[in-house]
Amino acid sequence: MISIKIRIGEAMRRLLVLFLFLSLLASTVSVASAAGTDWWDDDYNYRVRIVPADNASPSRATLDFGAMLFELGVGPDGKETRWMADPSSIHAVADGSPVSFSWDPANANVVDGFESSLDGWNVSDDIDAALTTDVGPSSSLRFTKSTDAGVKLYTTLDAEELEEMEYLMLSGRGAFRITVRDPAKGTYMLDDAVNSDTFERTVFPLSGGAYREGATFYIEIYPLDTYTMNWVDDITLFGDEVTVTCGPADSDLYVYFNTYVTGRGVAPGGTYEVVDEPVSATVGEVEGFRVVFEQQYADTIGDTVEIVVSVEDARNDIEWVRYRIDWPSWVSFSDETYGVWGEMSRDGTVWSASWDTSHTVCDGHHLLSVMACDSEGNTVYQTTEVVVENIAGDVDLAPGATSFSFAVIGDTQPLSGNEPNPLVATYIMERVAHEEGLDFIVQVGDLTYAGNPLEYEHVREQITTYAKIPFYPALGNHDAVDAEGLELFEHYFGHLTYAFDYGNSRFIFLCSELSGQQGRITGDQLAWLEEELRSNADKDHVFITVHQPIYPVFHGLDNTGEVQEVIERFDNVSAIFQGHEHTYDHSVVNGMDIFVTGGATWLDSQYEKEATFNHYFVMHVNGDEFTWEVRPTSHLFFESPDDGMETTGSEVTVTGTTQPYTRVDVSGVEAESNARGAYEATVPLDHGENTITVSTSGLPDGALHEVSRTVVRLHPLEIALEGEARDGEPLQVVLTSQGEPAGEITVQAHDVTAVTDASGTATLPAHPGSTFKLSAYGDGYEGTYTMVDVSSGSGPAIAYVGLAIVVIVAAIIALRAKKKD
Q: Angle at CA 20, nearest 5°, toward 452 and 464?
């Protein structure tokens, strides 16, 4: 017997953190294959060799699956979910044949085995819960609910009980949601569900990113409906290590495995059991399909960079190898629509491509990812961090260029640090990305609300999802609430203040939020600005970008006059691009075009209605001419309710966003958006499917815009019984809805179900002599239930006996009367 410990969770959590803070270092994977050993099954991509210490005795080896996957660069084509070794795929193989194995978690914390009581659990009044031996080998918890409300059972866990835990395992049957939640923060380490007709074991990965030291966590169980009977047992938390016992075997073993994209629980392979302490075994190197970078990158890179990788140990033909820069989490590597990417060409096992950094990305830290895909659709990738630096000194990013175009985007910040960027900000980024003929994008600051790491990660993803051209931002006051914000901005975008040539033009980016100088351009920075203007006096154009306005509408720098005096000494400043004020404004000062553009986020009611609209600019340089266009957006978003939502209510409140002060029609109900572009209307619902349409012709393009969603108002159900429910006799049930027969409705009592016919009638088999819950449910109907009291089945027999006695007595009386006659 061979016993193997599998260490899974820590490396995956480390991997997610590394991605979050972009601190991956360039790495090269070197894995040796076991010479002369045939691969057991080409459907498996990975294996690790186990050398028993004693073929006749149990042996222990420690496998760290998370570290192996991290080393190999294994992951799904799209990173929005976690990846891990698939527990259902693990096989132990010796001499080319599978051998049996079983497993048990080490460092396990049994939350509850439900052997004796529900002590420690809080149970809502509308939940019927009891310990039972109905299913499984031992006592389990059986529960159901009697209300449509989201009632639950829950127990508490201290942070110390969760600190080393990576997985939750349970045995269950039915339809219920299970969560592990930090109620103080509203974050989840687990939010999943059991939907099973059989009593089975499931393993759920916990989100290490939601763990908070010192917190009290809840384990919560929510029945999903009123008609399903649920069972749960052996709720267990366990950590990285799992002991797998396999064999016996007379030779070395290999543990083969595949990966799966998770976020859902899985049923593990093998048998769950506790095993005795084994002796040690030796673990070989992991083998399998992988991508390996063939070079280490310098501290900084620029211009055109060669990307060279090898693809090793592929079990199938390689279909393609591609690179992506700052791979957005939800975008498939094979999707050609979004972001900066390129095909790589092949020379044997080596693949290469050229990446033009200066015309695709801004300076700063970037993630370079390379993915390989084989003919079976298996994917592996490697990611390394690179630091791009193209802007230094008097660099010219487009030597000789005299004709080019660029976009200018205003503030894109959300309403708070807990919200994503507004939909209109994403809409504008997508519009700009598809605008023909643009060479780069200028952004005037306030990319974030609070300047925290997660917000910067979201901003980077928003940019790289759409933009295939460089994105040059200024720092806004919301981007640098503290020193961390300044550091993050430099990390992602390279510089707080910077300048570069683009052909016949000079671009200068000021920082109105330097530490100790917030709201001012002064000291060394003001001197630098003056020198930039003086030394570039021969340029056809100088463009200045700053967040807090030098020439404000209402709100700007604290020392506007001082900065204006410096700028107005020079006559070749073509335009100044400013943000901060959530409005639109254009003016001309001393021949300079002065722009205020805060139009890519929520807008502000303090400004004139005519200037309160979402927009961006497209700027054109053609020799010594500078022209511009403002592009108001014609967006209409339907934000709630969700499409396909089911409700029992007679009306629903519809919300969304569009241009400010725009009248919209919401399925016949008139509404007008406010200064922030938000509209709201309450519309009535008919029973069944309702199509709700929001429309307007009041947007800048003058066209009719419509967005629709479907909301289902569930039909009510009424339950009636044909006669009394009697012990040992079938029960006939009649279902109606609003006075009409309801066919195709499932009727359930305990585990017994029947379906109503066209007349709304169904017959359930005999029931035991006790009160039971009778439920009814069907697509498009509101589930309902009733409690049924069962009468004794002897009732009819007694009646018949009584009748017989009466008949006999009557006959005797009649005979006696006849004799007297």
A: 90
**Is the predicted pLDDT of residue 29 greater than 80, yes or no?**
no
Q: CA 236, 238, 244, 245 torsion: positive or negative? A: negative
pLDDT of residue 278: 60
Strands 688-696 and 705-713: antiparallel
Contacts of 404 (CB under 8 A, 6+ apart): 398, 439, 502, 503, 620, 621
Q: Are residues 175 and 305 in the same domain?
A: no
Residue 812 lies in a domain: no
The Cα-based distances of 576 to 279, 317, 443, 567, 821 in angstroms read 73, 55, 12, 10, 131
**Does residue 67 fall inside a structural domain?**
yes
More confident residue, 177 or 45: 177
54, amino acid identity = D
**Most confident range, picked from 98-112, 377-391, 403-417, 465-479:** 465-479
Q: Please check whether residues 472 and 541 belong to one and the same domain.
A: yes
Quick check: 543 pLDDT over 80? yes
Q: Does one domain contain both 671 and 757?
A: no
Q: What is the dihedral of CA 341, 343, 345, 350, to 10 degrees?
A: 50
CB 719 within 8 A of CB 784: yes
Distance between CA atoms of residues 387 and 369, nearest Å:
14
In angstroms, what CA-CA distances link 290 with 25, 44, 69, 295, 312? Answer: 17, 13, 10, 16, 6
Is the pLDDT at 803 greater than 80? The verdict is no
What pLDDT does 626 receive?
A: 97
Q: Is 65 helix (H, G, I), strand (E, B) or coil?
A: helix
Environment class of residue 578 by beta-carbon count within 10 Å: exposed (0-12), middle (13-18) or buried (19+)? buried
- Are 54 and 190 members of one domain? no
159: domain CATH number is 2.60.120.260
Coil, strand or helix at 364: strand
Q: What pLDDT score does 819 carry?
A: 57
The number of distinct structural domains making up the chain is: 6
Looking at 411-415, 468-472, 516-520, which range is the least confident one? 411-415
Supply 432's token pair: 């700009």
Same domain, 706 and 729: no
Asked if residue 15 has pLDDT above 80, the reply is no
| 505 plus 609 within the same structural domain | yes
- What CA–CA distances, in Å, run from 94 to 79, 243, 245, 251, 256? 34, 18, 13, 6, 11
Distances (CA, A) of 17 to 161, 207, 213, 333, 367: 22, 11, 16, 21, 14
Q: How far apart are CA 526 and CA 532, in angstroms?
A: 10
What is the rounded distance in angstroms from the CA atom of residue 162 to the CA atom of residue 190?
A: 12
If you write DSSP's letter for every residue of 698-731 in order, what string do you get?
A: -STT---EEEEEEEEEPBP-EEEESS-EEBTS-E
Domain boundary (250, 267, 288) is at: 288
Two structure tokens written together for 241: 């290590």
Does 268 score more than 70 pLDDT?
no
Q: What is the extent of the structural domain holding 334? A: 291-388
User: Is 819 among the domain residues?
Assistant: no
Instruction: Indicate if the pLDDT at residue 792 is higher than 90.
Output: no
Q: Strand 790-791 vs strand 725-726: parallel, antiparallel, or unpaired?
A: parallel
Residue 805 lies in a domain: no
- Quick one: average pLDDT of 527-550? 96
CATH of the domain at 660: 2.60.40.10
Residue 777 and residue 779: Cα distance in Å, rounded?
7
Looking at the structure, do residues 476 and 615 belong to the same domain, yes or no? Answer: yes
**Is 95 found in the same domain as 61?**
yes
